[in-house]
Amino acid sequence: MQSEAPKYAVGEYWSPDLRALHNYLQETQYSMSLFDVPLHFNFHIASFLGDNYDLRKIFNGTLVATQPEYAVTFVDNHDTQVGQSLESYVKHWFRYHAYALILLRTEGVPCVFYPDYKTHLPKLARMMRVSHRLNGKQFDMIDDTHVIGRSFDGDYPGAVVMSNRYNSIKKMYVGKQHAGKEFVDLMEHTEGVVTINEKGIGLFPVAAKVCGVYITKENYHESIL
To answer: Which domain holds residue 25?
Structure first.
């Protein structure tokens, strides 16, 4: 009996060296996607360096930034945990940051570590639900050492802002068609609302060392269920 080729396959080549992943893809004739190990190590390093890490470099040297069509992005897996063979875990304070960077992004196929979903990160499910709905053009605001953001201007708009040092406010565009709408933080780190101006721009606050995910008030209630 002739077997069919899989419609989708992912492999693991454990190296933080992007060139090694590129070579592996080439040698296997691009027959599969690969876990973005360099991105995982960027998350690991960022979580340990804290406010000494430059968030503008978070996607440097990663598969999702260079060959996104072959990138499976992830935060941690069973082998990266404390005491395991590939120990390189991401500290808890940065885990929501990391998941926002892979789930709320057009490029790459995100993969969630089950213990994070089930136990460790109680609001991760909210972020996962929103990840399937955000649409429109993606605007990256990776322009500050300690505060970066991303926004979407579609029918289901949203904005992500994160800090690794201080409280801040990020000005981001979510679409002129959403002028007057009120956005709230799905992660509930910041109280109050952000009202979009006539140019489609909002001023999105973020507290020190946390990640905010802003969606419209009408979408908020269905996302927290």
So the answer is: 10-121
CATH number at residue 32: 3.20.20.80
Specify the number of domains making up the chain: 2
Measure the CA–CA gap between 24 and 34, rounded to whole angstroms: 9
Residue 13's nearest CA partner among 29, 34, 41, 30 is 34
Output b/e per residue, 127-142; b: 16+ Cβ within 10 A.
bbbbbebbebeeeebe
| Angstrom distance (rounded) from CA 202 to CA 197 | 6
Cβ pair 175, 157 in contact under 8 A? yes
Same domain, 115 and 143: no
Q: Are residues 103 and 156 in the same domain?
A: no
- Mean per-residue pLDDT for 196-217? 98
- Residue 30 CB coordination number (10 Å): 12
26 vs 20: CA distance, rounded Å: 10
Those residues whose C-beta lies under 8 Å from the C-beta of residue 14, and which sit 6 or more positions away, are 37, 86
- CATH number, domain with residue 178: 2.60.40.1180
pLDDT per position as a tens digit, 42-93: 999 999 999 999 999 999 999 999 999 999 999 999 999 999 999 999 999 9
CA dihedral angle for residue 98, residue 95, residue 42, residue 141, rounded to 10 degrees: 30
For residue 69, count other CB atoms closer than 10 A to its CB. Answer: 11
- Is residue 165, in this structure, part of any structural domain at all? yes
Model pLDDT, residue 1: 45
